[in-house]
């Protein structure tokens, strides 16, 4: 009987493992390709692991691909500024919707949730026209602001759920001690919502770092392109798959580091019911 009860769990585990393998294999294949020569990659005998591992592709990127390091720095700047803005704005807005109800707040929250369903492609032309008129095309902030706009609605939804789950008594005690609304949020409520803010940080980092469509549309000059867009420039006359693998490997390092650093807080935040409410 115990075995029969565990069958659904085993099936679910097998399905999830299969899905994980399907997603992970291409990533590892690109990483291993970065240590292969172009000749080995194009060989008729396909190999998953490199026969003679080499760092020549990484040396090529650092010696001859200085522009790609510039693209990398562009992505770091765009992502860092975008994540900071998203975490701060979503934490403040989420607290306002959860603890400071105002007339029409329900309608505003419903509109924010409705915005989440908007396809990004439908907004690209209006965003492009507005940025062209105000001179934000091919600038860091010209890419930061649309990315923040893209991730902020769901981030507000997450933080609202977090603040709704916190005890009201702590807030009331802070008010009785003479704390203002802002100080109550900053000194009492925000520290308690730290795990939810970590979820927003990871969510916004992943979305902004890997965003391609807006970068391709709003960065028409090479000097402003993020790394996700610059990967398509590696083609030249023919693809150098080893160098491409090296750049891809360098591109996936920051998201992996972010996940490793915040893994425990991310799990704790989800356990708190961060997407509830």
UniProtKB/TrEMBL annotation:
One of its GO terms (biological process) is transmembrane transport. The keyword Transmembrane applies. Its main location: membrane. Residues 72-262 form the ABC transmembrane type-1 domain. Keywords: Cell membrane, Membrane, Transmembrane, Transmembrane helix, Transport. The chain crosses the membrane at residues 12-32, 78-98, 110-129, 149-168, 188-209, 241-262. It is found in: Cell membrane. It is a multi-pass membrane protein. One of its GO terms (cellular component) is plasma membrane. PROSITE patterns: ABC_TM1. InterPro entries: MetI-like (IPR000515), MetI-like_sf (IPR035906). CDD domains: TM_PBP2. PANTHER family: ABC TRANSPORTER PERMEASE PROTEIN MG189-RELATED-RELATED (PTHR43744), SN-GLYCEROL-3-PHOSPHATE TRANSPORT SYSTEM PERMEASE PROTEIN UGPE (PTHR43744:SF8). Belongs to the binding-protein-dependent transport system permease family. This is ABC transmembrane type-1 domain-containing protein. The lineage of its organism: Bacteria, Bacillati, Bacillota, Clostridia, Lachnospirales.
